[in-house]
Specification:
This protein has 128 residues and is mostly helical. Helix content is 86%, strand content 0%. The chain contains 5 helices and no strands. The radius of gyration is 24 Å and the shape is rod-shaped.
Length: 128
């Protein structure tokens, strides 16, 4: 199966001009670190930066709540600090989930651009 995909990619590259082939290569699959770096590029890069700062602050608050949980002797205070720990876990989880969805959206957009490029290449060949 892998050889067939490589053959198809080569056929597509053969039909493209030099500039389109360069663009097609840039749309190739990315590894995890490239996808993470992609969050900090584009129009919403400021949002990724702000979310990471918020995650760091909430993580610090999580550590503080955990320390206070083991420090207390009163049951009511224990319940409050455990609630804080759970709340911090939920906040970090939801913010990370949002960032992973953004990474997935970027990957889908990259695939859609590849498909558009392939369709335009094939339509150009049919017209000729």
């Amino acid at each position: 199966m892998k050889h067939k995909m490589e053959d198809i990619d080569q056929l597509i590259k053969d039909t493209l001009n030099e500039e389109e082939a360069k663009f097609y290569d840039a749309l190739d699959e990315q590894n995890l670190f490239q996808m993470l770096g992609g969050l900090f590029k584009g129009k919403n890069s400021w949002l990724a930066l702000v979310l990471n700062i918020i995650i760091a602050i909430v993580f610090g608050l999580l550590i503080y709540c955990i320390i206070k949980t083991f420090d207390t002797n009163n049951t009511n205070d224990l319940i409050i600090w455990v609630g804080g720990v759970i709340l911090c876990f939920f906040m970090i989880s939801m913010l990370k989930l949002y960032m992973w969805m953004q990474m997935h959206r970027n990957a889908l957009m990259r695939e859609m651009k590849r498909m558009e490029l392939q369709i335009s290449s094939l339509s150009g060949r049919i017209i000729e």
